[in-house]
Amino acid sequence: MLVHIVMFKFKEENKKANIIQAKQMLENLMGAVPTLKSIDVGVNFIEADRAMDLSLIAVFESKGGLDAYDKHPEHQKVVTFIKSVVEYSKAVDYHKSEV
């Protein structure tokens, strides 16, 4: 399994509304993108300098699944919106060991 984590720092303009919209759009990818096995999207509630505003944890069976997700038209719509409302994002991808 491959885990894909992304954290977003949103611009101040319309911040709350944009976070809510981004969360909904990301959650709507479940079922729309066949290679997406699960997705968890969370809104930060702690104010701190190092805090990000929104995070997602998505799971795929392989890197090929992540690549297909990345190129999927529904995901690209989300990417276009998010890029317009965030200051920056950080990501990490790793293989999850089966125990």
Draw up the topology in text.
Elements: E1 2-10, H1 15-27, E2 38-43, E3 54-60, H2 63-71, H3 73-85, E4 86-95
Antiparallel strand pairs: 1-3, 1-4, 2-3
Helix pairs in contact: 1-3
**Which spans of ≥5 residues are poorly predicted at pLDDT below 50?**
none
Distance between the termini: 12 Å
Helix content: 25-40%
Q: Please outline the major beta sheet.
A: 4 strands, antiparallel
Mean pLDDT across every amino acid position = 96
- SSE class: alpha+beta
Number of helices: 3
List keywords for this structure.
99 residues; alpha+beta; four-stranded antiparallel sheet
Structural notes for this entry:
With 99 residues, this protein is of the alpha+beta class. The protein has three helices and four strands. 35% of the residues lie in helices and 32% in strands. A four-stranded antiparallel sheet has the order 2-3-1-4.
